[in-house]
Amino acid sequence: MVIRHLPHNSIDKKKWDDFISKANNGLIYAKSWYLDVVSPQWEALISNDFKYVMPVPLKRKYKIPYIVQPYLTQQLGVFSNEPITEEIIRKFIQKLPSYSYQLNLNACNFLPDANPFPNYILPLDNPYEILVKAYSKNTARNIDKATKSKLNIIEHYNLDGFITFYQSISRKYKPTNCECMRALIANGLQQGVFKLKAVTNEEGEIIAALCYTAFKNRLTYLIPVSNEKGKKESAMFYLVDTIIRQESGKDKMLDFEGSSIDGVARFYKGFGAKNHPYYVIKNLRPSFLVGRIK
């Protein structure tokens, strides 16, 4: 198999997007419009028979190319309708246009020497009455608490409101790139595959909100946010339960974009979600760049 490396301006994006939409393991992160926002100069590796593709989120610092997983992009790697073997994955990795990389491969890109990271997924094909039986006691208790608090769901929240609410939350860690977030959500809404929902309390205040995606049969829990009132009222439990109730009995799955943080993972598992790991590969970058590349 011959693998071609295409620079950004040589990628046929319509053909690319058709391929990702039809691939067995196609993910929204690999759509061209998504990559254009989170990694504007992304490149591509494509097999000569166009049966396998791999987006390459390439950046440059001091004119040196390096590959790093983009913001709000959990998984990339090799995509195809064909079986993706270890040999094929390694051939693509060997063709990466940089010796310096840190890249998250998707769940269908298993490599025995890659580092697995948790990702929790809940199939929604059963009726709600069956799905709810898999909830943990803590999850059921929080949903009951939220229901008694008379919370309300805003089914179609607006982008400006979502960004304003997100920015209003105090955080100990580094502020998120809200400009990129806004551009990505705006594109996703235009494409019809992003959804914004919010939760209000009895006084009508926004206390939680969620941006999630609906691509193929996968709903992806992309950007959740709650303020202190929302946490106290268990608003996110209520919102996720509402989505599960609405989408139950359909050939869909809820992808929670799993976490290694115990409390967050417990929240996901509390709805009955199971771990379907993805895989991270790394190759050391030059020592003088460590800590400098962003």
In CATH, the architecture of the largest domain is 3-Layer(aba) Sandwich
| Dominant shape | globular
Distance from N terminus to C terminus (CA atoms, Å) equals 34 Å
Look at the structure and name the CATH superfamily of the largest domain. Answer: Gcn5-related N-acetyltransferase (GNAT)
Radius of gyration: 20 Å
Average pLDDT, all residues? 93
Low-confidence spans: pLDDT under 50, at least 5 residues?
290-294
Task: Label the structural class.
Answer: alpha+beta
User: Strand-and-helix sequence, N→C?
Assistant: EHHEEEEEHEEEHHEHHEEEHHEHEE
CATH class of the largest domain reads: Alpha Beta
**Number of H- or I-type helical stretches:** 10
CATH names the topology of the largest domain as Aminopeptidase
Helix content: 25-40%
The strand order across the widest sheet is 10-11-12-13-14-9-15
**How does the major sheet shape up?**
7 strands, mixed
Q: Report the β-strand fraction as a percent range.
A: 25-35%
Would you mind describing this structure in some detail?
With 294 residues, this protein is α+β, with helices and mostly antiparallel strands. It has two domains: 3-116 and 278-289, Aminopeptidase (3-Layer(aba) Sandwich), CATH 3.40.630; 120-275, Gcn5-related N-acetyltransferase (GNAT) (Aminopeptidase), CATH 3.40.630.30. 31% of the residues lie in helices and 26% in strands. The protein is built from ten helices and 16 strands. The chain has helices spanning 13-22, 32-38, 86-94, 128-131, 137-148, 159-168, 178-191, 228-232, 235-247, 262-269; strands spanning 3-6, 43-47, 52-56, 58-61, 64-68, 79-80, 101-105, 115-117, 120-123, 152-154, 194-200, 206-215, 218-226, 253-255, 274-275, 278-283. Strands 10-11-12-13-14-9-15 form a seven-stranded mixed β-sheet, with helices on both faces. Strands 4-5-7-16-8 form a five-stranded mixed β-sheet, with no helix packed on it. A four-stranded antiparallel β-sheet has the order 1-2-3-6, with helices on one face. α2 (32-38) runs antiparallel to α7 (178-191) and α5 (137-148) crosses α9 (235-247). The longest helix is centred in the middle third of the chain and has 14 residues, at 178-191. The chain starts with a strand and ends in an 11-residue tail after the last strand. Mean pLDDT is 93; it is low at 290-294.
